[in-house]
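In this section we turn from sequence analysis to structure. A common task in structural bioinformatics is to predict how a protein folds when a small molecule is present, because the ligand can shape the pocket around it. The inputs are simple: the amino acid sequence and a SMILES string for the ligand, here zinc ion. Study the lines below before reading on.
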Amino acid sequence: MTGYFCVMKIIKKKNYAMKLIHIITLTIASSLILLAGCRKSDNNPAIPDLADVVPGNCTTPPLRLWLFSQFVTWGQELTLISASPELHMPDMANFYALHYENSGENQYFGTNAEHTDKINSVYKDLKRFWKYNNKNVFVVGSHGSMMQDREKVFKMYKTVFNYPDDKANRYADSIGTLLKTYPQFLKGDHPAFSFNQLAIPDTTIANVGRIPAKIIIGDGLLKGFDELGFKDVAPQAILAHELGHHLQYELGILKTGMKLVPKTSRRIELMADAYAAYFLAHPQGAGMSLTNLQQVAEVFFNTGDCDFAVDSHHGTPAQRKAATEWGYKLATVTGKQTPILPAEDLAKLFDAELNNIVK
Ligand SMILES: [Zn+2]
C-alpha cells in the first residue's frame, strides 16, 4: 500500500492514530470496488491482452492527503471510536444509499444540495449523448447526516449488518450519543462518512430485496473536490465516469461474477475515465473548454491510487490523467462536426490504445 505508507511517514508521530485512519480509509477505498451485478448479460466482448500492473513511480494524490488531514483533526480518540468495525460509521451512509435510496425522486447532492441542479442537468445530457435508454438507473446522494435518523440507523444494523434487535438498538443509541458528544463529527456531515462514488447494477440483496441500478455520489467526495478547487467540473466528471460503468454493464464489459484483478480493474476504471472525458469534451456533449478539461484530468488524477497489488486498483494518478486526455482529444479531433462514437466503438479504440496509456 505505497500510497498509505507515504502518508504514514509524513505523520509518523501519530503512528497509532494513523494505523486506525488506515483502517477507515481502507474501508473507503475498498468500497470504491464495483459490486458484481446479478444481471446476466448475453454480451461477451473479447477481453484484450492486458499488460500486467507493474509497480512504478506513484505519488499519493492531493485528494487523499486532504482526506487524511480531515481525519487528523479528529485526534486519536475519535479515530479509534469511528474505526470500530461494529459501529460501521464510515460505511453507514454509503451502504444506506446502496440499499435504501431506490428512486431518483427528492435526491440532493452536496451537504447543502449545492450540486443538485448540475448533477440532474448533466445526467439528462449524458443519457441523450450516449442514447442511454435505461430509465431505471437512478442517481442518488450519500449523506452522513442520515446517521441523525435513529430509525434509519436501526434499520441498517438490523437488516444490512444483521444485528439482533437489542444490539441494533444499543448501537443506534450509541451513534446518536456520539454525534451529540463530538462536534468534530459535524452531525455526520464530516466528509469521512460519505467519501464515495459507486455504480451499482440492479441486484437482489439478502434481507433487503431487489434494488434498482444506481449511481451513488457522496457528499464527502464532492466536498473534497470543492476544497481542492474543482467544484465547477468534479460533479460532472464523477457522474460521467459512473455512467461509463453502466455503459460497460450494458456492453457486457462489466458483468456478473466477474473476477477483477489489478489489471482488469485498471482497464475498467481507465475506460470509464475515457468515456467521461469524451462526453465532457465533445461539442454535442458538455462541450467543455480545454481549461476545464485539464481540470477534469486533475480530478481523475486525484482518484488514482498506488495500490498496485490490490484487486480494485484503479490505475495510478498519472494513468488516469492519461486516459482522460486520450478521451478528450478523441472527442475534439475534428472540431464541431465530430460524430458521436457509439460506446462500443469507443471501448474498442480505448482497448487498442490502453497499453500506451498505462506506460
Ligand atoms: Zn469507477
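The first strand starts at residue 137 and ends at 142. As an exercise, try to locate the residues that line the zinc ion site and compare them with your own expectations.
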